[in-house]
Amino acid sequence: MAKATKKKSPKSTATKAAKPETGATPAVVDPATLTYEAVIGLEIHCQLNTATKIFSGSSTQFGAPPNTNIDPVCLGLPGTLPVLNEKVLAYAVKAGLALNCQIAPYSKFDRKQYFYPDLPKNYQISQYDLPIAQHGFLEIELIDDAGTVRRKNIGITRLHMEEDAGKLVHAGSDRLAGSTYSLVDLNRAGVPLVEIVSEPDLRSGQEAAEYAQELRRILRYLGVCDGNMQEGSLRCDVNISVRPVGATTFGTKVEIKNMNSFNAIQRAIDYEIERQVTAIKAGEPIIQETRLWDEATQRTLTMRVKEGSSDYRYFPEPDLGPIEVSTEQLAAWRKELPELPAQKRRRYESEWSLPPQDARVLTDERVVAEYFEATVAAGAPPKQAANWIMGDITAYLKEQKLSIEALPLTPAGLAELIDLIESGTISSKIAKDLLPELLANGGSAKALVAQKGVSQISDVATLEAMIDEVLAAHPNELAQYRAGKTKLQGFFVGQMMKKTGGRADPKLTNQLLVAKLNAEA
C-alpha cells in the first residue's frame, strides 16, 4: 500500500539545552522534569465501493472464494493494459471536496516499486507528486461529560488514488518443524483505494479516534466507502511521537498498525504515549519502528525496526494518461455532494434546539438522520422524535439486527404515534406498549389504538368516580396519608393506573387525586 511521501522530520532537539553563549556552562535539562505532548498523524486507506476494480472489470465483492475475482490486468499478465474506472475518479474528487481539499486540475498516476507476494506486477499503481487532492481540513467535535463542545480543524495533507494489494493468509504453527506457510488471495488486488494523510495536528487518542470516526461518517454520507473496518474497507495507520510542551521539533516517530476499531485506535495511542514518555524520562531512546496493537494484552509490540525510508523508485505510469478535471466537471460533482454530518449537527442544534449529543447520535448514520428528518417533516416535534429514535427504536434495531431502512414503522407512522401522545389521546406508557407491534408490523397508530380500545381516559367525571372507588377500597392507606404520610400519593396513583389499565391521563389524574386526598385533611 502506498504511503504519502513526506519530508524527513528533523531530529528532535527537545531534550537538548539551548546553545550557550561563548564561555557559558551549558544548562542541563533533566527529561524527567519536563511535561510532554504527543504529535499524531493518521494515514487512512479507504476502499471505494465501486462494483469493479480500479483498472479492470473484475468484481470487488467482499467474501468471494479466494482468487475468483481476478483477471489478467490485476494479475499483471504480459500484454495487459490498465483502464481507469471513471467512478473511482468521481468518488475520489467528491471525497476531496468534502474534506475541503484543493482538487488538482491536472494529476497523474505513478508506479511504485513494491516487491511482495500479494502484488503480482511487482509494482503498485498509485499517485506520487501530483495527487488528485491536497491541502484540506476536517473539523472534529469533542463533547465532554458536561455537554460542552470543543471543535478543532485537523489538516489534510493529501488524498490520492491507488490500487489495493492482495492478501496473505498465514497458516501453520510449528516454525521449528517448518510447517508454517502462507496462502495468497488476489481477490483484493486492484480494488480501488484512496489514501488520506493528515497533518500531525492530533494530540491525543481521543482526538485521533474522533478524526477517524468523522472521516468514516463523511465517506459513508457520500456513499463512496462503506467504512467496515472488520472487512478491511477502512484501515488506519498511526504515526506518533512525543516532545516537550512548547517544542517545535518532532520526536522520533513510531508507526502503529493492526487496529480494527476506533476504540482500539484510542487505546493504542494512549498506551504508546505513556510508553514513550516513560522511556524518555528514564533516559531510554525511542527507536523509529513499526509496532502492532495487541488487543489481548492491550499494548503495542515491535513488528519491525525501520533504519531508513524505503526507495520505491517512483516514475510516471506509462500505460495511463494524465488526469484532467475540468471546471465544469468539478462544479457538477460539487453539486452532487449531500449535506454532510457536521452541517447537519449544526442545523439540528440551531433550527431545532437539540442538545449537541442528540445531534451527534442522530447524524452518525445518514439513513438515521433521514428517518429523523422525515419524522419531523411529518409533524412530530424534533425533541420527541429524537427521543423515540435514540431510545426504543434504536434498542429494537440492535436487538433484531436491523437497519432503520428495513423498519416497517415509517417516519409518518412514528409521527402519528407521537401526535397521539401530544394530543392526550394516549399516554406515553400506552405508546410504549403499542410500539413493539408497530415496529414489527408497521401500520397506523390511530387504527391500532381504536382496535385495542386503549385511548386515554381524560374525562373529569369518569376519573373522579374512579378515584372515589380507589379511596373507598383503601381506607387504611387514606387515613395514613391524611395523618401525614404523603408519600402514599404514589400508591394511589399506581392503583388508579392499575384500575384503568394505564389509560388514565397521568397529569389530570394526579391533579384530581391530590384534591380528593386533601379534601378532608
Keywords:
alpha+beta, Arc Repressor Mutant, subunit A, nine-stranded mixed beta sheet, three-stranded antiparallel beta sheet, disordered N terminus
Question: Can you put this structure into words, describing what you see?
Answer:
Helix content is 37%, strand content 19%. The N and C termini lie far apart (82 Å). Helix 5 crosses helix 6. It contains 15 helices and 16 strands. The N terminus is likely disordered. With 521 residues, the protein is α+β, with helices and mostly antiparallel strands. It folds into three domains: 289 residues, no CATH class; 114 residues, no CATH class; 59 residues, Orthogonal Bundle (Arc Repressor Mutant, subunit A), CATH 1.10.10.
